[in-house]
Structures are given as structure tokens and as C-alpha cells.
């Protein structure tokens, strides 16, 4: 049996709980330091609260400790690893291989061991079987793959390593290969590998050639559309992926709930279609959901499947580095509706609501506005420059959908079969007994004395009442009661309040016995056993302390420490030449001329096109 894990992001514990309630099998969250999203930190006490909730359903909590660790931070990082373990974390997601040695006993190797698994973050630049194998040999129990891989490349990596395979399936995309982007550090002294990325790839640039000719102005040339592999989950599972990751540790609760529910529903369909092959990696189901998930209605820069099909496509969101949302129609006419308002007539079948947010592409990029009054295909709004007949309009905020998400009552429950028996008599006293089997496989017997109750005058009505009152919810369980065929002829007269108390007690005794959990792959820290080889550009090994230097051997320090001049700041399968129709390999494309540069952040960035590898690099 292959267990499929839907892994959701959480900015905080409450969002993590919402993700679990909507169907996540696991959640990743940052602790107070060393997370690759510095603005998404949480105290360890909140991680403990999230772990307690998740473990009720066999769901798992992974803590991100995935920045480069400087020499002076090794002891602090080690203490955090131990704190997360004590809080109940199921694994740590890490970038710096020095954490393998820290897990074995701290900087000096003499302290307490960290026994929970270590997962190699996508920041470890895992895009070849050789790199994945080196990390697995070093002791990482899971490798998180680069996002710019084809299904065939993923299949080859999965077949080559004895480690779990995790892959991103949804959310924002970095244009650079993960862990090898130094653009933010170059431009602002804020390292992506240290959790402080300024998202320079979402900025606007002018494109020019080496003769000074401006080829295009004010475009987000390095901004990619958002990832969406909702339609590729089964092929990914067949290729060897077992953990499917949603990006978004800075996203809102409504975003996380909507996207998680969409993917959870898709996984449930796979499991129901192939019940002998696949199962979910946690237990329980979602009840009380008041919305139909729709990923087009939540934040996105338009969607792409990137390179998953093995073919290059148009991946850029050069006009829309911010959310565009769902396309809803085309402007027919615009006319005054008041002193500072206009009336927009729209060719659209969408159901618009007052307060909806809209966006369109204008000469200045993306323009957004709020629909104060929306009736049919008519929008009354403040005067908005650029709204003219023929404009394609998008809705990036559905006020109705957001209200539904905000008031949604989704919660996670575990089903429990309860076989009910009664023994004794009115003279000797009765006993009420329940044999329980929960959906996660827990089995137990619970018996309570009822005392000397009178005999029920209507046996059938009493049976129906017992079954009805014990087939309800209590705690996070839904009980399904069935009456044992061997009940005595004389049944006690049990009041509804007593039966409800018995049902609540069943939830309490179940909680004492921990929920079963699907075992994770175990780490085997072996920091000296990895064949870590420095990349051609030595600083890309991201060596920031003496432990990782010992693993890679002598060489250049991480870019954050060396600041090498003229360094390759990023590399990608994404190519601006291809996007603009200048790829020399494509039939019918124009022939590119000279060198190209991006400017707009205070200094020119040279673009280098490695056509032999079908890759583009940015030099600065």
C-alpha cells in the first residue's frame, strides 16, 4: 500500500489546524528562527499546540529549519531542534547539511540526539538522481524535489534513492533553481537562503541589448505563473512521489482552506478508485464544509504546470506579478455614473456581488478596483484609468466566496463503530458496554455500571433510542452504534442524558489511546558518509559553517559570506528569449541579437543563455 500525504503550509497554528480540518495529512510550519520565511515564525508552544491537534488524526507536523546556519548560530539551532522534538514535531525540514551532525549530538557531538527524521529541503537543489542519492546516503529520510523537473526526471530520481519523495504541486514558483538564488542578497543584502528574500523576481525591469536598444519596458520578466498540478496527482504518485506539497507559508487561512480542500478531494477520488493501491497518510474526514473548493477563486498569477510534461511552455506572468484571479468577461462600455463613479457594462456570465475585487492589464501593469455595486453584468465603481471597451476583466476577490470561507464550519472527525451490549437485570443492576473500533484501527472495550434501573415498558422504543443517542458526535469522533443481537429481553429504562454522558465518555477513553499513525521513513544521520561534491560554481554549495565545510571539503564560502563579483545569481529552465519568440532552437522564432540585460533595481543584470542545457542564467 502506498500512502499519499497532502502537505499544507501554515503561517501559524490556527491556519495549520484549519488545513488539517480541510483534509491535510501533514502541515509544515516555521519555529521562532531559521525558517526560510522569516515573517512566518512561531513560538515552540504554538508548534506544540498544533502537534497535539494534528496527532489526534494521525496527521504530522514538520518544522522548517531550512536556512543556512552561520558558525555563531550552530548551538542555537541545535537547541531549537531539540525544542521542536520535545514539542512533538514529526520531522524537521532542513537545508544546511550541518544539521545532520547537530542531530547526532550538537556542535560538540556530546549532547542529546535528535531522533525525529530530517527532510532535505528543496533548498538543497535536488534535481538529479546523484544529488538525491548523496543526501539520502548522508541520512536524510526524505528529499524535497526541485520544482522545474519533468515527470520522467522525477521518476528517475525516485527509482534511484532509498528515501521518501516529496514534490511541490501548487502555489508560487521561484524562477531560479531552489537554493541557488542570490539575487535578493545581491540587490538588497537580504538572502533568500536566510529567509529574507525581497522577491526581486516579482519586480519590474527594462530589457535592453548590448547596443543600448530597449527591447521592452516595465515588465516582470522574472515572475512566473503559479504552479497547479491538480490534474497530475495520479501520474506523480505512479512516478514515486508520496508527499504532495502546497506552497504558501505567508498565505491567509482562506487560501489554505480552499486549496487544501481541492487537493484533498482529488486524493480521495484517487484512493476510492484504487483502494488496493493507495491510501491517505492520515485518518478521518472533513465534516461541516460549507464551500465548494475552487482554486481559480483564490490568489494566483494564472496557472502553469511548468516542465512536468517535459516540454517548454510560456510560464511567465510578466504582466501579472500579483493575483489576477478568474477571467470573468470583457468590458462592453464605460460611462459616467456620478461625480467620481463610472458604470462598466460587462459581457459575462459570472455571478457578480457587491464588494468583488477586479483586475485588468493596463499600460502600467496590473490595475485593480473594487466593485461597489454589482448588478448582473453592470459594475458601479470609482473612476479607474484604463478601463475601456474590449478590456478583459478578472475577478481576484469574490466577496461571496470569502464570506463563505470565513464562516466555514469545516472540522475533522474520526468514524467509530460501536457495538452496544447490555447485561444484568433490574435486581442485580445493569451494565452498558461498547466495543469500539475507530477508523484508524484502535480497538477497545468500555463498560459502565447503570445501577438498578427499572425495566423499559417498550423494548423496541428503548432499542431505537439507544442506537440513536449513541450514533452521534462527541469530541472529534462520530459514533455509529449497532445493537448486539444478544441483548436481554428486559432492557433498562435509560434516559437520553445518561446515554449522552456514556457517548461523551467513549470519546474520552478513545483519546487516552493515541491515534494510530502511518510511520515516517527514519533518518540515518551519517554526515561523513555522503559523497557531497561541490558544484562547478563552488559558492553554490552554500557552505556557511565549519561542519558543512567538512562535508564538502575546501572551497569557496556561501555567496552570503563571499559576495563573489560577477557571480551567477540564478539559473533556470525558464528563458526570456523563448518567452519573447527569440529561441534559436524553435522553428519560426526570430534570431536573437547580441547580449541582453535587465535593469530596474539600480544595477544592470546580464542574461546568459545556455542553449546546450536549455537554461538561462542571471549574472550580476
Model description:
The protein has 620 residues and is α/β, with parallel strands linked by helices. Among the domains are: 2-173 and 224-282 and 291-297, Alpha-Beta Barrel (TIM Barrel); 322-406, Thrombin, subunit H; 413-512, no CATH class. Helices cover 24% and strands 27% of the residues. Strand 22 and strand 23 (429-438) form a beta hairpin. Helix 2 runs parallel beside helix 3 (74-87). It is globular. The two termini are 49 Å apart.
Fraction of residues in β-strands: 25-35%
Parts with pLDDT < 50 across at least 5 consecutive residues: none
* CATH class bucket of one domain: Alpha Beta
Radius of gyration based on Cα positions: 29 Å
Total helix count?
15
Classified in CATH, the superfamily of one domain is Phosphoenolpyruvate-binding domains
- Fraction of helical residues: 10-25%
Class by alpha and beta content: alpha/beta
> How many strands, which pairing sense, and closed or not: the largest β-sheet?
8 strands, parallel, barrel
N- and C-termini, Cα separation: 49 Å
**How many beta-strand runs?**
30
Shape: globular
Trace the largest sheet across and list its strands. 1-2-3-4-5-6-7-11
Q: Mean pLDDT across all residues, rounded?
A: 94
CATH topology of one domain: TIM Barrel
* CATH architecture assignment of one domain: Alpha-Beta Barrel
Amino acid at each position: 500500500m502506498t500512502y499519499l500525504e497532502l502537505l499544507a503550509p501554515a503561517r501559524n497554528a490556527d491556519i495549520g489546524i484549519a488545513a488539517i480540518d480541510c483534509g491535510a495529512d501533514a502541515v509544515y510550519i516555521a519555529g521562532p528562527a531559521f525558517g526560510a520565511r522569516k515573517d512566518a515564525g512561531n513560538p515552540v508552544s504554538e508548534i506544540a499546540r498544533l502537534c497535539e491537534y494534528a496527532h489526534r488524526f494521525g496527521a504530522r507536523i514538520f518544522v522548517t529549519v531550512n536556512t543556512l546556519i552561520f558558525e555563531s548560530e550552530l548551538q542555537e539551532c541545535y537547541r531549537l531542534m531539540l525544542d521542536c522534538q520535545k514539542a512533538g514535531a514529526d520531522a524537521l525540514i532542513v537545508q544546511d547539511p550541518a544539521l545532520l551532525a547537530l542531530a547526532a549530538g550538537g556542535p560538540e557531538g556530546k549532547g542529546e540526539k535528535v531522533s525525529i527524521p530530517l527532510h532535505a529541503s528543496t533548498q538543497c537543489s535536488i534535481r538529479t538522481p546523484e544529488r538525491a542519492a548523496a543526501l539520502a546516503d548522508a541520512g536524510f529520510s526524505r528529499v524535497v524535489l526541485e520544482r522545474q523537473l519533468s515527470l520522467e526526471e522525477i521518476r528517475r530520481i525516485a527509482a534511484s534513492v532509498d528515501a521518501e519523495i516529496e514534490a511541490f504541486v501548487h502555489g508560487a514558483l521561484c524562477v531560479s533553481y531552489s537554493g541557488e538564488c542570490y539575487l535578493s542578497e545581491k540587490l538588497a543584502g537580504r538572502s533568500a537562503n536566510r529567509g529574507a528574500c525581497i522577491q526581486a523576481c516579482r519586480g519590474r525591469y527594462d530589457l535592453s541589448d548590448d547596443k543600448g536598444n530597449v527591447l521592452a519596458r516595465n515588465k516582470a520578466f522574472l515572475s512566473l505563473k503559479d504552479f497547479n498540478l491538480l490534474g497530475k496527482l495520479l501520474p506523480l504518485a505512479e512516478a514515486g512521489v508520496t508527499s504532495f506539497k502546497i506552497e504558501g507559508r505567508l498565505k491567509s487561512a482562506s487560501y489554505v482552506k480552499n486549496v487544501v480542500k481541492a487537493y484533498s478531494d482529488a486524493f480521495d477520488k484517487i484512493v476510492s478508485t484504487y483502494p488496493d493501491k493507495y491510501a491517505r497518510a492520515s485518518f478521518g474526514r472533513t465534516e461541516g464544509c460549507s464551500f465548494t473548493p475552487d482554486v481559480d477563486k483564490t490568489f494566483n498569477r494564472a496557472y502553469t504546470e511548468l516542465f512536468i510534461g517535459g516540454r517548454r511552455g510560456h510560464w511567465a506572468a510578466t504582466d501579472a506579478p500579483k493575483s489576477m484571479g478568474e477571467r470573468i468577461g470583457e468590458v462592453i462600455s464605460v460611462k459616467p455614473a456620478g461625480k467620481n463613479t463610472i458604470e462598466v457594462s460587462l459581457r459575462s456570465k459570472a455571478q457578480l456581488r457587491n464588494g468583488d475585487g477586479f483586475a485588468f492589464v493596463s499600460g502600467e501593469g496590473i490595475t485593480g478596483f473594487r466593485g461597489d455595486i454589482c448588478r448582473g453584468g453592470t459594475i458601479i465603481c470609482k473612476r479607474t484609468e484604463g478601463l475601456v471597451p474590449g478590456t478583459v476583466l478578472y475577478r481576484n476577490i469574490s466577496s461571496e466566496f470569502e464570506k463563505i470561507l470565513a464562516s466555514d464550519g469545516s472540522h475533522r472527525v474520526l468514524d467509530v463503530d460501536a457495538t452496544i451490549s447490555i447485561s444484568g437485570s433490574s435486581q442485580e443492576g445493569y451494565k452498558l458496554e461498547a466495543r469500539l473500533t475507530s477508523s484508524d484501527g484502535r480497538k477497545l472495550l468500555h463498560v459502565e455500571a447503570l445501577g438498578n434501573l427499572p425495566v423499559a415498558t417498550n423494548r423496541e422504543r428503548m432499542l431505537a433510542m439507544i442506537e440513536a443517542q449513541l450514533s452521534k458526535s462527541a469530541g472529534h469522533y462520530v459514533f455509529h452504534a449497532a445493537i448486539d443481537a444478544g441483548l436481554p429481553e428486559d432492557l433498562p429504562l435509560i434516559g437520553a442524558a445518561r446515554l449522552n454522558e456514556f457517548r461523551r465518555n467513549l470519546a474520552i477513553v478513545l483519546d487516552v489511546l493515541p491515534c494510530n499513525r502511518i510511520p515516517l521513513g527514519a533518518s540515518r544521520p551519517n554526515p561523513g558518509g555522503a559523497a557531497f561534491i561541490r558544484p562547478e560554481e563552488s559558492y553554490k554549495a552554500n557552505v556557511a559553517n565549519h561542519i558543512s565545510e567538512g562535508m564538502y571539503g575546501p572551497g569557496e564560502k556561501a555567496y552570503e559570506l563571499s559576495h563573489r563579483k560577477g557571480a551567477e545569481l540564478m539559473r533556470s529552465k525558464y528563458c526570456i528569449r523563448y518567452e519573447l519568440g527569440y529561441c534559436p532552437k524553435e522553428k519560426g522564432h526570430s534570431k536573437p541579437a547580441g547580449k541582453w540585460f535587465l535593469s530596474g533595481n539600480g544595477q544592470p543584470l546580464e542574461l546568459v543563455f545556455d542553449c546546450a542545457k536549455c537554461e538561462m542564467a542571471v549574472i550580476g
